[in-house]
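User: Hello, can you help with two protein structures?

Assistant: Certainly.
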Amino acid sequence: MSFFCLLWMPLFYLFRRTLTPDDSGAGGVWALLLGSIAAIIQFFLGDLIKPGGFGLSRWVSACIDIVTFPAILPLLVCFLFLALKVVSGPIDFANFALLWLIPGAAVRAVSWSAGNGPAFLVLVPLLWTAVAVGVSFFINLFLEHFRWYVIIPSGLCILVLPFAAATSWWAFYSQQFLRGSLFLAAAALPLLISMILSWVKLRR
């Protein structure tokens, strides 16, 4: 499972690049550098939330320390780069986020290898991918089709998807497998749609 946590992010990034060869790789070096710094800081600081049991504090920990914030942070930095014009040319949000998360997954593969189990070593990389690519998908919809009937549902999905991912992790950790599976499917659906659309576009 540690190898899955270590290898999933880079392998998925390379797989996605085969489906989206025209997407810009601008900012890749920044993503790896800042992702490495963030991973090292998190490793030394540890978790900000100390959860107890399986209740609300565990879900908040999933949002802050485990699933939501780690996957959303690179997208926020990507927006900042665009606003400040740090990188010349367009940035692919999903590629930037996936590259950022590679060092974090490597650090956690080591720190979680002592017996935290599949909820950490398998589910977390999958949920990071779902959030990074899914939220990026809705951001692109938002930017490319600036209409109210696109903005409103895309904005709602951007808000809901990260919390659905955190809830999925919390449910699996609490051994509520049916609920966890439902939230996992909801979190992963935009990712699947994005990959299918990229494949269809590539085939044309």
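That covers the first. Now for the second protein you mentioned:
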Amino acid sequence: MTIVDTDILATIANGTGCGLVIIDEAGMIEYWSSQLEGVSGYSAEQVLGQPWSELALPSGFSGVEVGDDFGASLVDASTALSGIAFYPVGEGVDGQVKRVGVLRLTSQYADNGEGFPFAVETAVGIPSRRAMFELLQSQLACQDRYQTPFALLFLRIKNYRAFIEVLGAESWEITNRAIFDQLGAIIRMADSVGLYDEATFWVVLANSALDGTNVAAEKIKRLASAMKIDALDLFLSVAVAGVLARPGDDCEALVQRGLSLVTKTFDSPSGLVVEG
């Protein structure tokens, strides 16, 4: 595979937010995107030229030198990689074909095990704060390497205490699940959503510049503001803030910038602020 081919594949992976692997006619790994490095713990140098069948099995991975914790990380990697969907491409030797594996890194993977970046830590199966930080680390690495922009949004439910006082914490958890499902239905496949705390949702927008972030933030604001809790005959009152990742940002700096902005947004007439 040429350097040009590799650059094209990396651009596709970053643009879609998907992890990509290519398996040749002999079943050997020919390409391994940086997104798969993040979810599995295997670098491209470790897996290229190795048999996919042995990587996918939790019984061991021959031909690759790894650290002492290989046994634990292999189980986690197997769980993470189990969501890859393979597609045949072209004709190879003796009529055989290469296979392209695609792992969609979205919140739909919330039900996977603790080793997966979208590990569930909420009672109703919503990707957690931990999932957000692990995803941001991966996005920051891609931005540093490929200059791919991305953004972090926070949606804060301002009147959530009124719901909890009347309906109780358990009912509010169910409400959060309903909000999560609605948000998941309107974001792109490459984007991800989860719960930062009991009344704050996070959304990571992959490959998103300022204009795209504004569009997504406005869509999320309209959706959430239109949601009504029938038992109280009360609409959600929300604030939405978005921040674009900047060169030199780390996870904590980006998150704190977003949280600070969403707090300031409480007093904004529009309830919506996006900052580059």
